[in-house]
Amino acid sequence: MIFKTCQVQKIQHLIQEYTQTLSSPFDSFLEEHILSSDFYLILEESNEIGYFAIHHGQLLTQFYIRPSYLKAAQELFYQVIKKI
């Protein structure tokens, strides 16, 4: 798996997929942290698996894996946490 830094606009389609799965919206405090986070695209070869966002190099603000790749989610989450 590859983690690639990206602009939030490049993964907007993934963010929309993720927000459609939520039962309630983000609160404004969290939203500010998300918007000021660094975003990373998760790739397997050229396939987009998901994304994550890290605020100030120490706080994971978002983590999304597409449903078809959920079997790899736990290992990916571990790799992301090690990155912080």
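the 2nd protein, sequnce then structure:
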Amino acid sequence: MKLVYITLLLLSMLFFKADAQGIKSYFNVSHYTHTVNYDHYKAVFYVQRPEIGLGTIKSDRNYAWYSGNQIRYTQGGYSGKLLDGVYNEFYDTKGLKTQGLYQMGLKTGKWKNWGEDGKLDSIINYSSGKANGKFEKYDQEGALSERGTYRDGQLNGKLEKRISADSIQVVRYKKGKVMAYQPNKAVKITRWLKSIFKKDKKIK
């Protein structure tokens, strides 16, 4: 009889342990969004899950991490939980302010920014925390005003800025340095704008 009681006790302990682990997993805050409130906007984001390893920390990158109910940024290190997953910022009016993706504390993929009126402000592509690839900036009316390319965080290639209704300024860069400059290049600005919006529609 004593053996039966001991067996039942052991089984109960095993079930309780398994159930406790399930409860811990269910209520693990790492699997849920966090929110930090700032003046006039709030940030909603995810943090690094416990099962994900640290990986290699690069000294030339700025890492975003969460600690003490604040998002913090540090070059080459962190002390807390790295931001990992979809990141959104919302104005007090509920409109989107910023939208992008973090991977292990580093910006990656396409990041978009909007003004309080909902007009698109910029689109910048990132790779491992550095601006990489094409970017676009828009004026207060939501019209394209500038476009170019980043490579490893530096301007590289042709940078085009709209300076009037029918002309743009063209500057050529190589690894962040100006190589050639055309202050007033007349172009058919409507064709320039249409090419961008047509390309954007295909991407969507």
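The two ends are 70 Å apart (CA to CA). The chain has two helices and 14 strands.
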